[in-house]
């Protein structure tokens, strides 16, 4: 999916390096160990003679007959003692060097094995590791039990057993419904061993459903990012299709904003974090995937929140790669209120369509309103048309903010976010910013502990995450 330059393997990670060390060290150590680190004795030196004699040589290295010790030294016992001491020193030095060489060889072999295994196991593509990771670790024992895999265009996805999905969801009981989608419900699944996941059941009678199923599987198994929901596996049973995802315990942004809690769990800073996370996920799709991916259905019900309110983009049934969009085989799809005007009117699809939808989500976060609201039985009003005149009027803006967070933020930050939203929902796509620019304008508004660069000053009521008036 992504074309990443193959990063050069660092020297320490190269198995060849370790093999080199393994082969070279004994060669380097051997001569040292053999002479105890001392300069090689010359044939005529007393040390050489002593060593030769001590080693049991009958003839000294120069070939002459050794003189009797008594004639060579006035104190034979002292000389013999010196020779023994010298010999002991040599043996100790040789032993120490031999042990160092041995330990080095063992360590080098060990490192070589580790480096080789890592090198063999490294994925071709870059993978973001922040997130999914807990889900994946927890998954290993479960996936081991599902030993069949579906081969898709680029890789493998775990094919899960229908009976286990049935058991984990209490036979797809209503009490386990997490959400309702276009082709069926999403259920909470509790697997043996305590692993939990979300299972989407698609009742596929038509081709459209089958296409979305295949598309979502194909894309999700190729992309991995901390702001994109993780794929766990899939299952096909009769006309039903199942996609298993990591469980996002705080549900969708739509439920949080427009459900029973009416956004009360989402402070200003958490809302800004959700916007930032979503922009990061989109930036990954637009800028780091090759070919780029256009989500085509970004909306608050497709932004899911985990236990820490980290936001992840989900629902890739309609997503397309830029290669596919030009084929003219795309049915006009999306959700009313989020669809960019040029796509709705001319079918013109670009990354800027996602930027428009992002702008609508930003307005939902700011205003706590649905993207399209019913005014009268046959009359709807879009959040964009309704809010635009007030968004650009600094005196009116604070009055239309979601009452749950009204007056809890720094005014300057509010004006900045409103300006970003206004730009994103421009009718002319070329006036809209790239998602990268949006991302960079949001980073300074999110506290450091939530993934931005904003330093919270505990003294200032405007920068606390509590809902204090400013
Ligand atoms: N991984 C998940 N964790 C928790 N809830 C989820 C998960 N996936 C989906 N849901 C819930 O189910 C709803 C529908 O899921 P979605 O994948 O968007 O289906 P559809 O493609 O039919 O729109 C979401 O809006 C959300 O409320
Ligand atoms: Mg959806």
Automatic annotation (TrEMBL):
Residues 1-36 form the signal peptide. GO terms for cellular component: plasma membrane. InterPro entries: Kinase-like_dom_sf (IPR011009), Prot_kinase_dom (IPR000719), Protein_kinase_ATP_BS (IPR017441), Ser/Thr_kinase_AS (IPR008271). One of its GO terms (biological process) is signal transduction. It holds the Pfam family Pkinase. The chain crosses the membrane at residues 91-116. Residues 172-443 form the Protein kinase domain. ATP binds at residue 200. SMART domains: S_TKc (SM00220). Keywords: ATP-binding, Kinase, Membrane, Nucleotide-binding, Serine/threonine-protein kinase, Signal, Transferase, Transmembrane, Transmembrane helix. Belongs to the protein kinase superfamily. This is Protein kinase domain-containing protein. It comes from Hordeum vulgare subsp. vulgare (Domesticated barley).
